[in-house]
Amino acid sequence: MKLDRIRNFSIVAHIDHGKSTLADRILEVTETLSEREMREQVLDSMDLERERGITIKAQAVRVAWKGHQLNLIDTPGHVDFTYEVSRALQACEGALLLVDAAQGTQAQTLANAYLALENNLEIVPVVNKIDLPQADPDAVAAEVAELVGEDAARVLRISAKTGESVAEVLDAVVERIPPPEGDPEAPPRALVFDSSYDQYRGVVAFVRVVDGRFNTRDDLRAMAAGTRFEAEELGFFSPVRTPMDTLEAGEVGYVVTGLKDVSRLRVGDTLTSARHAAAEPLPGYKDVKPTVFAGLYPTDSDDYPELRDALEKLKLNDASLFYEPETSQALGFGFRCGFLGLLHMEIVRERLEREFDLDLLVTAPNVAYRVYTQGEEEIEVHSPADMPREFERVEEPYIRATTIVPKEYVGSVMELNNERRGRFDHMEYLSEDRVMLSYDLPLAEIVYDYYDQLKSRTKGYASFDYDVVGFEEGSLVRVDILLAGDPVDALSLIVHRDGAYARGRALVDRLREEIPRQMFDVPVQAAIGSRVIARETIKARRKDVLAKCYGGDVTRKRKLLERQKKGKKRMKQVGSVEVPQEAFLAVLNLDGDKR
Amino acid sequence: MSGVRHLYVHLPFCAARCGYCDFVTLVGRGEDHGCYVDAVLRELELEGGRLADEVETVFVGGGTPTFTRPAELRRLLEALPAAEEVTVEANPETMTRELAALLREAGVTRVSLGAQSFEPRLLAILDRRAGPDDVRRAFYHLRDANFDNVSLDLIYGIPGQEPSDLERDLGEALALGPEHLSCYELEAKPGTRFTHAHGEELARQAESMEGYFELVVDTLTAAGYRWYETANFCREGRRARHNLAYWLGRDYLGLGIGAVSTLDGLRWRNLPALPRYLAALANGQPPPRELEPLAASTQAQERLMLGLRLDDPLPFAEVQAALDSEALGRLEGLGLVERQGDGLLLTRRGRFLGGGVTAELLAEIPANNYN
Questions:
Q1: % of residues, chain B, pLDDT over 70
Q2: How far is B69 from chain A, CA to nearest CA, in Å?
Q3: 3-class SS of residue B252
Q4: Domain B296-369 is of which CATH architecture?
């Protein structure tokens, strides 16, 4: 296909603004699938997914429209996957910015719009759901026009649900979005913008060919990872895999690699021919690093092998998931996992629990810190337990947080952000009564109970989005919890100096409630280094006897003692103190914080 | 050893059931007393071969043994083997001058009197029929009948009890000068009518219980009593020898409904239903029983559990198999257990925490011993 007959585009939108409905409608309008086939097709693929346990969801669908080849590239919808989104956008020349006619611009609308602008995409603004009774297409069109610097008259107004004006969207794609540029004769280069894992065929890379052409059976090389493999199959999605002999410059499709490990072919890498290699990779590859860490432990320690297997399987599909074994005094064997963000963490947790039927304990999440010890040695710390007690300085990740709220909640959001060490950046009225607030905040302040607070303080009206923007030095301290003088690794925290007392106090109080009295006084302390900042004492029991015991009572009393002994076995011995598992759960469990 | 040297006989009849009581008891049934004694004596005939030529102790418990019709009680006592210590449990309101004399004549050497409290208000809560004066009167009847070994039972942690009530109870008991005192905390079994009626107050009492136990031990030891077992105190030389046999892990034979025997590694319990007991023995058959074989390891555990209740060192060698030596080291470090010669002993604080300490000292229990 000639380059000027190809259009590559994405749909970007805030969640629930109608992205998938529009995608479905496009398949219908272009007769890629008939309405009937559509239903069957979707059902078929779901059956197949279920039967074979593979994901065959189309990530990039090719449709034909008035003599043009249109490639619709799907993007992951959320901030945690910004890098993946930006790679997907890099594979396009334009984007449909879809906005709900009733809700107007939301935080992810902005984030996605900015991302599209950064990638020099032609933005086609579309107001969706104009059929809703509470829709205000004119006002929302004005808002969106303002946002992308476009004439309000050029903002399309559609209903993906009813199909109204969907054809005009496709016309606009052809008319307004430029064709791809590239050199069909140059050594081949293709951008890997996504991938999936097929248990029979290995890694399937989703690619946008920039230069040259790729043929089936070519020896290929991933330029960043250095991985070599044979292109077992090439093709495009329609929306099922449709094999082709070649993929040419400007086209979008897939490559079956046969690789058994997703980490050997990461999103953002450049594919080229092993024999006629391109000199330079395409720009923009970076190794995404997890920003949020948490310990994952099976609630029943016997499930540890199952958890390990489940993580292995999940990792096949999700290269950004990071995990390493971790042993906690309190929780036994588990894994310290790294995630791209909180949503990513939730997704992983949910998949582990749902798809692998595991009962998990997720410890309160923390961020990655850069710690500089004496002599300027830099170490990255993913767990408070690994934090050196002595250090020169420490840096923590910062985010640029965008919050959109009705104006009456501006004060509440500001208050929350101030409590969370936020720095005001700027504020903008998106419309008469909706305001966008921009703040810089330490990421660590977001991972602990922020969403729930935001939600309750704005009655659920706030939309929130963030971007990690860098690291900054912070006045952070490691707080240790000591039981009878022995530090408990699993309970250490890294907190801002100003919040250390309150968090230490809260933990100490909670532990005093949760740990049963022992046979001796147990001091519970929170300490920064050797300085104790909070202390409570669990007073020793003074009496614990089986009152009477004669000939007829012996068996029953013995059983009582056996039960007591078994109860003790379930406790964790921390130094000389017996701590019930429940006490750790109460303090460590992510859900426990949200009380 | 040839033969069992300790005999227990259960007399289940009571005038009324006390709300907190969980023993095998039967209210009234005067017409059954005679057949019951017949049945017990027949069980004695059947099992008597297990007894040693010289029985050391006999204990007649209940129920309220002294509620049993005097003639039947006498018939039973006179048929039991003679022993150095023969104890009968008695409720104060049943103890008349005549009964005291009857017991003495029938060879009883020791009486355990269920006083429980001297406070009318608390006795009412316990459903006890005796008042404080009944206790005193009963005590003097026993003294008049030349009993020089009388024990008083006290209960603490009664709903509505204040520390001052307990102090007064202890003072009243001491004023009588008994040879022996048993002081129990009230055990309210979950699910009983009593627990249901007094739930909140029992929870409040549970908090005070620590202080009560200390008060009991301090007061009685200060008065010169020996704290020889977790809940038992005596004048020197007046330990309850029958109960001591349990705590020392000796074999014992139990007769009557609900009675337990432990003999050569086998424990059995007569089932509590009266009609089946009577019917079996009327036919010359042993009564229906629950059997519990005791593995050597279980016996060692019980030896540990019971032996540590005493103030005499528990010979190390007898319990080594049941001991968690790591826990022993830890508890020694905490000052709760100490070694004395070849024996093991709880310290004073260890005795207050005896349940937890013992649970910790018990070595891992083999799975096949759980039921």
A1: 98
A2: 25
A3: strand
A4: Orthogonal Bundle (1.10)
Q: Determine contact: A541 vs chain B, CB below 8 A.
A: yes
Residue type, A489: D
Spans of chain A below 50 pLDDT = 41, 43-44, 46, 48-58, 591-595
The domain limits of chain B are: 6-247, 296-369
Residues 6+ apart with CB under 8 A from A43: none
CA distance A474 to A469: 15
The pTM assigned to this predicted structure is 0.66
- Rounded to an integer, what distance in angstroms lies between the CA atom of residue A169 and that of residue A158? 8
Chain B contact present for A556, CB below 8 A? no
What pLDDT score was predicted for residue A62?
93
Q: Please determine, for residue B159, whether its predicted confidence score (pLDDT) is greater than 80.
A: yes
Written as six digits, the tokens of A192 are 């890997």
Dihedral of the alpha carbons of A91, A95, A100, A104, in degrees to the nearest 10: 110
Query: Mean pLDDT throughout B138-147?
Result: 97
In sign, the C-alpha dihedral spanning A504, A508, A509, A511 is positive
pLDDT tens readout for residues B210-233: 889 999 999 999 999 999 999 999
% pLDDT > 90, chain B:
77
Work out how many CB contacts closer than 8 A connect A with B: 104
Specify the CATH number of the domain B6-247: 3.80.30.20
What is the pairing mode between strands A233-237 and A213-215?
A: unpaired
With an 8 Å Cβ cutoff, are B336 and A552 in contact? no
Residue B248 to residues B87, B110, B179, B259: CA-CA distances in angstroms? 18, 20, 21, 19
Number of helical H runs and strand E runs in chain A: 14, 34
Q: Which residue of A has its CA nearest to B363?
A: A565
Are B213 and A542 within 8 A, CB to CB? yes
Q: Which of A504, A509, A506, A475 is nearest to A492 (CA)?
A: A504
Long-range contacts of A412-416 (CB under 8 A, 24+ apart): A412/A457, A412/A458, A413/A437, A413/A454, A413/A457, A413/A458, A413/A462, A415/A457, A416/A450, A416/A453, A416/A454, A416/A457
Find, in chain B, the residue whose alpha carbon is nearest to that of A576. B330
Distance CA A235, CA B282 (A): 95
| Contacts A544 to B, Cβ<8 Å | 352-357
Chain A nearest C-alpha distance from B94 (Å): 24
Contacts of B213 in chain A (CB under 8 A): 542-543, 545
Distance (Å) from the alpha carbon of B333 to chain A's nearest alpha carbon: 10
Interface test with A, best of B116, B358, B364 (most A CBs within 10 A): B358
- B57 beta partners: B6, B85
Assess contact for A58 and A86: CB atoms under 8 A.
Answer: no
| Among candidates A544, A554, A576 on the partner chain, residue whose Cβ is nearest the Cβ of B302 | A554
CA dihedral A568, A570, A572, A576 (to 10 degrees): 10
